[in-house]
Amino acid sequence: xxxxxxxxxxxVGLLGLTxxxxxxxxxxxxxxxxxLDPVGLITSGAVIPFLGQxxxxxxxxxxxxxxxxxxxxxxxFLFDSACVRGGPSINVPLTPNDVALLRIDNIGAPAPTSxxxxxxxxxxxxxxxLPLGGPIAARTLWANSNGNFVRVIDPIxxxxxxxxxxxxEGGWHPMRTAAAxxxxxxxxxxxxxxxxxxxxxxxxxxxxxxxGALSPSNGFPVIFPFLxxxxxxxxxxxxxxxxxxxxxxxxxxxxxxxxxxxxxxxDLVYASAVDxxxxxxxxxxxxxxxxxxxxxxxxxxxxxNNPFAPNxxxxxxxxxxxxxxxxxxxxxxxxxLTPAIPALGPFSFVAYRAIxxxxxxxxxxxxxxxxxxxxxxxxxxxxxxxxx
Length: 388
Prior knowledge:
mainly beta, six-stranded antiparallel beta sheet
């Protein structure tokens, strides 16, 4: 269908003159049990982005906590924009029907001024997070006088009170292996920025052993698909289309915990008056890493513990060259210098979008999906390798 001037309509909509046309309904539905409300009551734990001075042009972040049902002790660890924990933990006791509002970006050094919060309950010592004792609601209010905005950042809840999911599927959370968003043409003062939240194993580790702030071994639902290894960037694949569904770019990018990217950092096509005069539609997928083979010595040979099998934790060939472990022809095994690294991913993430034009600001979480669904798989659930 011809969608001429969609970028202009978007800008006019931002100015409040004309409402945008209602999008067409999809040809199929992805039915799921329960409401899975992304901003419903949080029943176990949450990851909450916040931004302050030193990132994204400064500003202040206020954490809003509510306890609509029962008393709840909310205990929080702070992580910087690279998911490195810093500063003290914070405890906020809430009574039934209570609310708390606290500025979270100025706790004081060495606490980070921007990054992620892990919020849950805690053990008696305050060093370990445990699932919440009572359901809460939470969000960040990001105020920035330089940008003349107050943005509401929705939490990433591991589970909600209305979820009905099989225990083998882990908890429900809005992180998925794909996302989609519209961006009006970059021109003049009109700009689109994407805020990627790609937590790593400092937030939660599920394999090969449990760990992280929201460790499954302490009762938290598993964030699935699993998160990238701490210290490594999460790879992303970005496909950009014009308003006639023509593919303009298929490029790679990455994020690391909390990463802010103007769309022109993804590709300059967003600012092309020739290729995308009416704006763009973009699909982002959490990509996979490339497998790395083990590195083997060509001179140092280990003695075999069993002449019919390779030594444990050694993926190198037997010696002499060309021998086979199964028939006992190997008398040794070349020493392994570095272990093999399997291909990992796809990884899950969440993205928020800001569209700004002088005097106006539109901000919110973008649509998320499993990458197989966004590629056209109409089944209710995708395979485990593609995530939910």
